[in-house]
Amino acid sequence: MFVQSLPLEVIQKISAGEVIESPVDCVKELVENSLDAKSSRVDVEIIKGGKRYISVRDNGTGIHRDDMEKVIQRWSTSKIKDVSDLLSITSFGFRGEALYAIAMVSRLVIKSRFFQDQLGIKMRVEDGKVLEKQEIGMQIGTCVEVYDLFYNLPVRLRFLKKEDTERNRIIKLMKEYALSKWDVHFTLTSNGRKVFDLYPCQDVKERIQLLFGQKFEERKNSKNGVSVSLYTSLENTRGEVYLFVNSRPVQNRNLLEYIRKTVGYKKVCVCYIDLPPYMVDVNVHPKKREVKIYKENLVKELIRELFKKTPPYFNFMLAQEKAS
Ligand code: ADP
Ligand code: MG
């Protein structure tokens, strides 16, 4: 007999690693939770590229005191209820495994005050177990702190990248969410230094200008319930593409390469694709970074058309200059 079932403890750590592989995954899940909780402000703080400490604080709805211990259970979510909900996902999260996974591989502190309560609850968790729970005074909202990620998973710890690399990945991620939710106030602090402080913007154009500080052109196209809004830098720089499907930052290789080819490899490009939720499958991978789009060819056609026609678009940065 050589084949044996693995002990639960091993299974838990292996599966947690599918969702959380590095500090940036942790920040992503926590920021998404804050946005799902309808926060208008999200403050992120990291120390040592997130390897030592990550904190995500928001002013959202908060977690109900009776739910505090449930949120770290696996497959526990307030966002979907049954299979039919999978066809119309509008929240970032829905799998109910992020906080569970983080709890398994870090020392976790969750503080939350539900919007209808006078006091908050602070809960300290280690190895997935609640060590301490007490009432505290705090503002409405939630603050999740992650200490010593992978302290109990030495192999994973060894494979983390250098502090700078991990930090840069977090900065890029935060830019993506800042472009996804331009009306939300985001701050990022690294080793005690402000990396950015992005005030809430009126529209996406204002956020793009705030973030990149250069001129962009806007192009829009739509057909059969699918719409594309595309913003490209006028100047050539180091090319970068930010792609969003129904506000979710995604990394579809095929589509990203198509956009690069179409807009030019030296442009900064921000592309928003909006389509009915049933046309997108975000459930391809636990991290939800890859999505399947059922009408990908229509999306490509819409993008191609934007660059074929004589510019029907509004060159907003230049128009702003003329107006002033
Ligand atoms: P999911 O986001 O897929 O539901 P998570 O493990 O990320 O799963 O979170 C579990 C649950 O905890 C969420 O469904 C939500 O009810 C609650 N929660 C987590 N973070 C927050 C937050 N910042 N504000 C309010 N509720 C939260
Ligand atoms: Mg989540």
TrEMBL record:
Domain DNA mismatch repair protein S5 span(s) in chain numbering: 208-308
Shown part of the complete sequence: 1 to 324 of 426
Family: Belongs to the DNA mismatch repair MutL/HexB family.
Keyword NADP attached: no
GO terms classed as biological process: mismatch repair
Organism lineage: Bacteria, Pseudomonadati, Aquificota, Aquificia, Aquificales
Record organism: Hydrogenobacter hydrogenophilus
Keywords: DNA damage, DNA repair
Name the UniProt record assigns to this protein: DNA mismatch repair protein MutL
CC per GO annotation: mismatch repair complex
A GO molecular-function descriptor: ATP-dependent DNA damage sensor activity
